[in-house]
Design goal:
Blueprint lengths: L1 H6 L3 H19 L10 H16 L22 H13 L3 H23 L5 H13 L1 H5 L10 H16 L6 H15 L4 H18 L5 H14 L1 H9 L3 H11 L8 H21 L27 H24 L4 H23 L14 H15 L5 H30 L22 H18 L3 E5 L4 H10 L22 E7 L5 H10 E9 L2 E8 L18 H6 L18 H4 L11
Parallel strand pairs: 1-2
Antiparallel strand pairs: 2-4, 3-4
Helix pairs in contact: 2-5, 2-6, 3-4, 3-20, 4-5, 5-6, 5-8, 6-17, 6-18, 8-9, 8-10, 9-11, 10-16, 14-15, 14-17, 15-16, 15-17, 19-20
């Protein structure tokens, strides 16, 4: 009864929050398994974790996902361990592996609310949550498995615990401090963006606040860090610091920045302006067809991108006003919980800006990089809304509601467009007009990949000839995963044109293209070596079933004993695992070069 007495005065607030969270959950979870994004990075992670699910926990790796291109430089394995638990609980399937991201994304909704409530009023916090829940940017990255996608939850929990541990009103600051250390240790293993920014923010904040903990607490904090980083430590001992050498080598290869300080700072500001507004509004065409460059803010364009000028000006005003208010309020706010929130937000903005400035080398900061600061975009909006003082009168309240509704509706329209694109991916050539939110124009789903696989399998069943695929490297590992599930084994790579490759009479050859990328040159490359037996359009993917031209055939059939594993699986077999700690170690040979043609590259960060 005591519990119900406590919540009774807040029942309408709770009802509103539950409703908003339910809407956010629906956008994130609807047809999550069928419309899953499952491509090269996802298959890589799947095979690594699946080895542990089927072969025992000792097959978990000591290092995590890669950064910097190729498959060499790695952070800690925390994401793989979380995905392992997800696979055990929800099944050793692509959908089962992705549940970690989905669950964390759902939990981010109430966590975001309690985090911003440390500063903002119920009204403003509820408004911000309304936009946060339907943000196209956050929804998109919640719908598939990828290590950066868990950052919003992990970082919010890290910072929430950080604020709690320095609060004078907190009954258990020591416990919250240890929770903060735990979450920070996990966050910094997820992505280099977090690895470089989170420690700087946390250490600076603790230095400013000077919380007092006893030696036992600090000892436990150090023990938590060592425990969570023990896989990396074990790997470094076993490999004589191989990963550290990759790190030093990668840092040493950093490109020289041709732009001067002023231009570079201006471009980073422009990126923050556009990407923050993208996170808020879902406007995925704000940048136009090119990345930010020069001092023009895209305002000198004389063609189609000129129509984007109003939204660019709006985005610029939002960012500059938000930053100005953050600086001013941080200075004026008296010491206390609200002051701490503003100090943390300021550090978050400063260190993320400095970090992006440091890594900026080729005019490209991908939208996914801003997952590390995505909640900050809403905090800046909240500071602007707070200045409106919507509680003061009905006119101000109406203005506040219009702003929240505008951002929410903008996102919801984009959300439905995106989900409709996924729905129609199997039947209609569907693509996004721009790729600011996610770096691909095509909409390809797990359901669609399964349909392609079923088509290939139907031809295999007719003659049981070996299957060969010519396919974009982003999708090829996915098809081989599904084909292996049907008992169809991998032989050798198949390229078009065949050049020096063997060509077999008894073989099932398939070429898979994005439907919107098929052109005469590609068809000519196919026709030089093959006859097109059948063309199967499956929405945004088109499959060509091929027969080799008689003059190109070099052998009747590839021998059964030549079955191989994919390059991706071969690379995975070389990873250091707990099981291999007692076995002799042989250094990797040119790992960056052997994988470039078969997997996507993850830039540093």
């Amino acid at each position: 009864m005591t519990f119900f007495k406590k919540i009774a005065p807040h029942k309408w607030e709770l009802l509103f929050l539950i409703t908003i969270c339910a809407i956010g959950i629906a956008f994130r979870a609807y047809n999550h398994d069928k419309w899953l994004h499952f491509e090269v990075d996802q298959t890589w992670d799947y095979h690594i974790v699946s080895n542990a699910v089927t072969g025992g926990i000792s097959n978990l790796p000591l290092l995590g996902p890669t950064a910097g291109g190729g498959r060499a430089l790695r952070l800690g394995p925390a994401f793989y361990y979380m995905e392992y638990v997800s696979a055990l609980l929800f099944g050793n399937t692509p959908a089962g592996h992705s549940m970690t991201v989905l669950i964390f994304s759902i939990l981010t909704l109430p966590l975001f609310y309690v985090f911003i409530r440390r500063y903002f009023s119920v009204l403003i916090s509820s408004g911000l949550l309304s936009v946060f829940a339907v943000s196209l940017y956050l929804i998109l990255y919640a719908r598939f498995s990828w290590s950066p996608n868990v950052l919003p939850f992990l970082i919010l929990l890290t910072f929430y615990a950080l604020l709690r541990c320095v609060s004078k009103n907190e009954k258990h600051p020591r416990i919250w401090f240890l929770i903060m250390v735990l979450m920070a240790s996990i966050s910094t293993q997820i992505h280099f963006n977090a690895f470089f920014t989170i420690p700087a923010i946390v250490i600076s904040f603790l230095f400013i606040k000077r919380p007092r903990f006893n030696f036992k607490t600090w000892g436990l904090a150090i023990a938590i860090v060592i425990l969570l980083y023990s896989p990396m430590i074990a790997n470094e001992i076993k490999t004589s610091g191989e990963n550290s050498k990759f790190f030093v080598e990668k840092i040493g290869k950093g490109e020289s920045h041709r732009k001067n300080f002023a231009e570079k700072a201006f471009l980073i500001t422009q990126y923050h302006t556009y990407e923050y507004f993208l996170i808020l509004s879902g406007n995925d065409q704000i940048n136009g067809v090119s990345t930010p460059d020069g001092y023009t803010l895209g305002m000198t364009c004389k063609t189609t991108c000129f129509s984007r000028l109003p939204v660019r000006i709006t985005a610029l005003l939002y960012f500059l006003v938000g930053v100005f208010l953050l600086i001013r309020k941080t200075k004026k706010e008296p010491a206390g919980q609200r002051k701490d929130f503003l100090i943390l937000s300021s550090l978050w903005l400063v260190f993320s800006f400095l970090y992006f400035y440091a890594i900026f080398s080729s005019n490209i900061l991908f939208p996914r990089f801003f997952l590390v600061v995505s909640p900050l975009a809403f905090i800046l909006l909240g500071l602007i809304l707070e200045n409106i003082k919507p509680e003061k009168n009905k006119q101000r309240l109406s203005f506040f509601i219009i702003i929240i509704a505008s951002f929410s509706v903008s996102n919801i329209i984009k959300d439905f467009n995106y989900l409709n694109g996924l729905r129609n991916a199997t039947t209609t050539e569907s693509s996004a007009k721009m790729k600011d939110v996610f770096p691909t124009n095509s909409r390809v789903t797990l359901q669609q990949e399964q349909l392609v696989t079923n088509y290939i399998a139907s031809k295999y069943i007719d003659n049981t000839y070996p299957v060969y695929l010519a396919c974009d490297h982003e999708y090829e590992p996915s098809f081989w995963y599904f084909l292996n599930q049907k008992g169809i084994k991998y032989y050798t790579p198949f390229l078009i044109p065949v050049e020096k490759n063997s060509v077999y009479e008894q073989a099932n050859y398939f070429s898979i293209y994005r439907t919107n990328q098929i052109n005469k040159n590609q068809l000519k490359k196919i026709s030089d070596d093959f006859l097109i037996v059948e063309k199967k359009e499956l929405g945004s993917l088109t499959v060509f079933y091929l027969n080799p031209r008689r003059e190109r055939i070099t052998a009747t059939r590839q021998a059964e004993d030549t079955k191989q594993i994919t390059i991706q699986k071969e690379q995975i077999s070389q990873l250091m695992t707990w099981d291999k700690l007692s076995k002799p170690f042989s250094p990797q040979s040119t790992p960056d070069e052997t994988i470039k043609s078969s997997v996507s590259e993850e830039e540093l960060p």
